[in-house]
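User: Predict the full complex structure for these chains.
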Amino acid sequence: MTVTTARSRDRAPAPSGSLARRRRRRPAQREGLAGYAFLTPWFVGLILITAVPMLLSLYLSFTSYDILTPWTEVQWVGLANYKRMFTQDPSYWHAVLVTVKFALIATPLKLAAALGVALLLNQERRGTGLFRSLFYLPSLLGGSVALAIVWTRMFERHGVVNAFLAVFGITGKAWVNDPDYALETLMVLAIWQFGAPMVIFLAGLKQVPTELYEAAAVDGAGPVRQFFKITLPMLSPVIFFNLVLETIHAFQGFTSAFVVSNGNGGPVDSTLMYTLYLFIEGFGRYEMGYASAMAWVFLIAIGLVTVVLFSTGRFWVHYSDEDDR
Amino acid sequence: MSSSFSVSRRHALRILGGSALAVPLALAGCGDDSGRGGPAPDSTAPVELSFFWWGGDARAKLTDDALALYTKKHPNVTFKKTWQANQGYFDKLATLTAGGDAPDIFQIDDNYLAEYATRGATLDLTSYQKSGKLDTSKFPESLWKYGVVDGKLAGLSFGENTQGLVYDRTLLAGKNLPEPKTGMSWDELISWAANVTQVTGVPGTMDPSGSYQALWVWLRQNGKELYKGKDLGFTADDVTTWFELWKGARAKKATPTPDVIHEGNATDITKQLVATGKAGTSWVWVNQMPELKKSTKNDLGVVAFPGNPKGQWARASMYFSVFRNSKHKDVAVDVINFLANDPAAGAVLGTERGLPSNLDIRKSVSASTTDPAMKQSIQVENDLGKLFGPAPAVPLKGHSTLKLELVKAAENVQFGRASTAESAAAFFQASKAAISR
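Assistant: Here is the predicted structure of the two-chain assembly.
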């Protein structure tokens, strides 16, 4: 942006007097207009597909909107939906608990797996390119339904996983069909898809100057010490970035829980993630006003979590340009 | 599937244009009040009706053929047909309704009829019934009445159905075990199942404590109801007794382990334990027999739920409803009237949606069917039909919550995470809150 503005200023004819001053502004203005014109498709999308529905849902969260009644005829109920959520709905708090547990356990483990594999793949050896692709594959499958179905079949009582464990004489559980293990099975699925943060870690590792390691090696620091004293601090901005993204991602987990539980959050609500419960209320029970209120509380909650993460970042994230100061 | 709806705006415009022309024509033609509901059925103006149902390939084929018969008789009427599996059907129907783009005719079941009817999404068919444009004179009275919500005829019962205990004949025959019988008590059934487990190694019966159908029949046999007026027709203590009954059955090993019961609690018909070979019996609807048969090589049999068969009733397996804001109400009603009462359409549709509601058609279809599974389910329904008690009212709005809460409460007990009384109390409270909302 700045480059183009500078260039166009050079190209402007030599100004003189007040008329010229007015003219001088014009190319910049025109360029701004052109910019906005190019942005229009995106703005239209933002307003019609995101902003308007969001604001509508804010309005609907204060109503008893039930989908089937035209939304122009909905009843205003004030804070009733919010009151019900916080004081009268045990399932709601259960869903909050399940989601927080999922995010708290799955996110750090996923990041650890991603960093661990990235460290291994950072070494220049034959075939690392192939392995990088292979480890990234599960992430390409993303939140796919097919993957969740396969996962369900693998983790049944008579699934592949238990057959494998049986080789070692271990009797496996019913995993996805057991309320004590169903959520954990979903966590494993989430952790397995560590490809995206791994690629970002790999890029971060390439940025660490090699002379730091050389200097450390000369000073007698072993690999472990180098990792904690050089790699981790140098990588902390990347870790922070991944942490924020993956935390938000974990909170929004829906597809796998939906598929594994046939859409009801079972067994015994053990996989009742927040977004799944929201979906059940909104589309299964037609309590769309209530679901809208849940969505807004969710938005604020994720916002707060992100703010907290940013405020802690001050204590452990090191930017290399800060060190130069 | 979604694409067929995304083009609907253009269709809708065309229909709008068509009906704008058609209304004056219809008014000029017959001069009665039918202009209110769009063109009259005997008008020749082109009409396209959207038609939405859930079901499998077989149902799609039969419905296509039956609707083609209607188009043959009324070449100006064509159909925009959309169908999909039961899972996700009601999500889709709700969003279509919300967008004001609900299909003119849609299939619905008693789990959702009250939800739609009390919110005014369904057309009240009473006036059509009174004027004879919707003929229910050949229907059993209790059957069409099962489509009445708050005094309005919200849907036309399409197919009669009742609860059935489907069992694995091959499994029993292999070990010379007796088959279950209609009229055996709940305790007898549980002992029978425990014996099956012991002899065959396959658990004798699915644990139906999370099944609202089974609970409902059991309640009726004990002089209670699932719903009474606008309230629940039972107490938390009743549910405790119900959970205790099956806790005892699990102790006797009459049922599978909790994780397998959880698999069987899925609404998907192909996951029923009798079909997957994980239990000897499943608690289903009689008309699901042919569908269950497709998922297993074994021979299946069907009897009534245990206890007095008077607790069971002729349930409408599903309904056809007309969207209240349909542009072609009169034609849409004529179409469902045709599907229910025309002998040729009846012969095409058979018993795929349940026993035909029209008793004359039921008779002729029963006489001509050759499918053994269908024959068997017709036989059982006809036998049971003589023993049925009166039909209860259609489940209240909030029923979908009650269903889910019952599964949750039952599984909580099965996995040993809560006592029967705690779980029953939680279920009772959540259900009461849901129906009074």
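Chain A touches chain B through 29 residues (CB under 8 Å).
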